[in-house]
Amino acid sequence: MRFDIVTLFPELVTAVGESGVTGRAVQQGRLVLETWNPRDWGAGFHQAVDDRPYGGGPGMVMQYGPLASALEAARADATAPLHVIALTPQGRPIRQAMLRELVRKPRVALVCGRYEGIDERFIEAQVDEEWSLGDYVLSGGELGAMVVIDACARLLPGVLGHADSAGQDSFSEGLLDCPHYTRPEVAAGRAVPSVLLGGDHGAIRRWRRREALGRTWERRPDLLAREELGVEDLALLDEYRVERRKGGPHTESDD
Ligand code: SAM
């Protein structure tokens, strides 16, 4: 999968391809990152890319021309059509399902705004979708682009090994992930739930499913409301609730 990132700060975005899972994906050639700096098409000695807002008011607005030229260069370099996403707080909040769809596209352009934002005509004429990280305002879209790239890289075939497969991550099945433990068996006076030590894989699978259901019920009831739970899941959730009512954090109990 290839990302073409339109940004005034290419060095910020390319850093995501230098380490960890995303670094590995780049090395394997499964992820390609290309940047396009609107400054290269900026006007005048200072290669300006922004100007004052029509109607007055604070800040500057990114101009249509340099952004359009940068995107045009990316399109010209494309062997497949570009799907163009602008990162903006006014876009659709990013969800795992959107990323799962996105990785099916071979070429995606991510447009990063700065200043007060981007001239609306660029959004209207050149952008397919607007995506948001959440209900808060950042200084630029680069962090959003990095989030999209990282989350997509995890979903590309062959990037994660079996051991850290994305299939069990939060949201992959509509639920939050279950809690995880590693050595030592006791830390901060808390023991690892005994079921995880017993080697009964059926019981472990059941416990993990119950914890995922319970956590989602407690922390993200909005996610659970979207799921159609089967009889077995409903029974597990009931079990979790009963244990909770008995008191104490579930993970400390001696299952
Ligand atoms: N005036 C804009 C508004 O209130 O909607 C905010 C502009 S913000 C200071 C500058 C740039 O940061 C935006 O154009 C966008 O690219 C990026 N940005 C800020 N918050 C974001 C968010 N929550 N999600 C994605 N991008 C964001």
CATH fold-type name of the largest domain: Alpha/beta knot
Instruction: Return the string of H and E elements.
Output: EHHEEEHEHEHEHEEHHH
Q: Which whole number gives the mean pLDDT?
A: 94
- The DSSP helix count reads 9
Proper CATH architecture of the largest domain: 3-Layer(aba) Sandwich
**Structural category:** alpha/beta
User: For the CA atoms, what is the radius of gyration?
Assistant: 23 Å
What shape does the CA trace take?
A: elongated
User: pLDDT below 50 for ≥5 consecutive residues: which ranges?
Assistant: 250-255
Write a structural description.
This protein is α/β, with parallel strands linked by helices and 255 residues long. It folds into 2 domains: 2-153, 3-Layer(aba) Sandwich (Alpha/beta knot), CATH 3.40.1280.10; 170-252, tRNA(m1g37)methyltransferase, domain 2 (Trp Operon Repressor, Chain A, Orthogonal Bundle). It is built from 9 helices and 9 strands. The protein has helices at 10-14, 20-27, 64-76, 96-102, 120-126, 142-155, 201-219, 221-226, 231-246, and strands at 2-6, 32-36, 50-51, 61-62, 83-93, 107-112, 129-132, 186-187, 190-191. The strands form 3 sheets. It has a 5-stranded parallel beta sheet with strand order 2-1-6-5-7. The protein has a two-stranded antiparallel ribbon with strand order 3-4. Helix 7 (201-219) packs across helix 9. It is elongated. The protein starts with a strand and ends in a 9-residue tail after the last helix. The model is unreliable at 250-255 (pLDDT under 50). The site of S-adenosylmethionine has 20 residues, from strand 5.
